[in-house]
Amino acid sequence: MRGAVAKERLISHPEATAASFKRYMGTNKAFTLSGKDFTPQELSSFVLRQLKEDAERYLGGKR
């Protein structure tokens, strides 16, 4: 389900969505989203944070 939502967001908000950034981990490449620059590591941390929140919600709260 998340993949479909991500694809829709890439179409509806291309200026605020990064499609491929993991291949640039460990490099100095910056991604500009909504006027702010982010490193691949920062973008990855956002993904991991969301996965953690989703898992906690699915499992019934923090443990």
Largest sheet geometry:
2 strands, antiparallel
Order of helices and strands: HEEH
Output the number of helix runs.
2
Strand segment count: 2
The dominant shape is globular
Walk me through the structure.
By secondary structure, this protein is mainly alpha-helical. The chain contains 2 helices and 2 strands. The protein has helices at about 1-10, 40-60; strands at about 30-35, 35-40. Strand 1 and strand 2 form a beta hairpin. The longest helix is centred in the last third of the chain and has 20 residues, at about 40-60. The model has no long low-confidence stretch (mean pLDDT about 90).
Report a brief summary of the structure.
The chain is mainly alpha-helical. The protein has helices spanning 2-12, 40-59; strands spanning 31-33, 36-38. It has 2 helices and 2 strands.
Q: Any chance you could write out the topology, listing elements then pairs?
A:
Elements lengths: L1 H11 L18 E3 L2 E3 L1 H20 L4
Antiparallel strand pairs: 1-2
Give short descriptive properties of this protein:
63 residues, mainly alpha, 49% helix
